Amino acid sequence: MSAWNFIGILAWLIVLAWLIFTILNTRKRHLKMIIKDHKKFTWRNLCLDIVEVVVFLAMAIFMVQTTFLRVPNLKDSSQVKLSYQYKPLVLKTDGAQGYYVEVQNGNGKKPVQYFTYWVEGARYEVNSNHARVATGGDPLAVNGAGLPWPKKVIKQVSRDMPAFVAQLSGTYRPTFINGLGMHVGNSAEDYYLISVPSEIFVNNKDKDQEQ
User: Fold this and answer.
1) Where are the beta strands (DSSP E) in the chain?
2) Cα–Cα distance between 123 and 207 in angstroms, integer?
3) pLDDT, tens digit, for every residue of 73-115?
4) Which of 67, 86, 91, 188 has a Cα at 20 to 30 A from 195?
5) Angstrom distance (rounded) from CA 30 to CA 39
6) Rounded distance, CA 84 to CA 134, Å?
7) The sheet that has 80-88: what strands, in order across it?
8) pTM of the shown model
9) Residue 206: which pLDDT band, with cuts at 50, 70 and 90?
10) Which residues cross the membrane (predicted)?
11) Is 141 helix (H, G, I), strand (E, B) or coil?
């Protein structure tokens, strides 16, 4: 684990320490109010209770958002390092039909598609949350093309390879905000752009028909 991520660990320890302090300090003040001052309520104690709880909630919400809910900005090169790989696809056959990618449709209200493709010596399966299939024309004219793909390189690859898979990999850089979220060195995104010459090279079948 990167040393930068200890920033986030320290921040969470501070949140925990503040929670413990709030519990103990609230108990101490309220016992003093009852035993020493012979009162059950004071506005001062109420205000201190509210301030301590609000501070804890603010810190906890901020750390939850930073650690678990922060969406990486892949176009911000100061926060995310991008790398790209391009591999030609291997043509598979099913009887007389040849195809480069197999699409399996899942079930449910928002079904996820599963894409299976082959490269030299390997078979991969990715889903539509992290991949798209482009059939002919401009490979970037599909959903997911809004990602920071190197357009000139993609166009050159599409001229050199009739069918290919382009992989975009993003890794969190060593920065304070990434360390605070304990993300440094971790994957920010893996996205696959699968490009084939036309729809006839796509084999469609339902997920429940898979072997």
Assistant:
1) 80-88, 92-94, 97-99, 101-105, 113-119, 122-127, 131-135, 164-172, 187-196, 202-206
2) 17
3) 999 999 999 999 999 999 998 777 799 999 998 777 778 999 9
4) 188
5) 9
6) 17
7) 80-88, 164-172, 187-196, 131-135
8) 0.86
9) low
10) 6-25, 46-64
11) coil
